[in-house]
Specification:
The structure is a single chain. The chain has 2 domains: about 50 residues, no CATH class; about 80 residues, no CATH class. It is built from 7 helices and 4 strands, in the order ββααβαααααβ. α6 packs across α7. The longest helix has 25 residues. It is of the alpha+beta class. The strands form 2 sheets. It has a two-stranded antiparallel ribbon. The protein has a two-stranded antiparallel sheet with strand order 2-3.
Amino acid sequence: EIALLAPVTGVIHQLNEKLTRYPSLVNHDPYGEGWMMILQPECLQEDLQQLLYGEQALAWYAQEIARLHREIHIALCAMGTSPEALAGRTLQDGGVPVSSSSGCGLTASAMRESLIERLGPTWWTEMIVQFLHPQAGRFKSAPERKTRHRR
């Protein structure tokens, strides 16, 4: 597990324990059964001013995806592996699309495992630190929850 910095400060009052059994709910029903936590914000107005919205958020996301693709390309080339050869036949050159419904689907976890296998766990850890900015760049096996009580 990775301890990530939250975009807002506050006190967590409740965690959705259902996500430990069904983590896919976060993606499939984020505003229903997939909620993560109930948080009482401390400095919400200031925290919200630091976040990106709309077109700004989309542009940042596109830049980060492009940066990740460049990092993967650089790492594969440094190993002497052609990213194009590694991809195999794709739709543009007569191959088939990769999707979860096509029977030859590649899930996010399978892709992550493939990258870790090809590029090594050290590279993967560096990418986690570079892109997700985990707290102090440290991995924690089980995040310690500090409960704050207000009087």
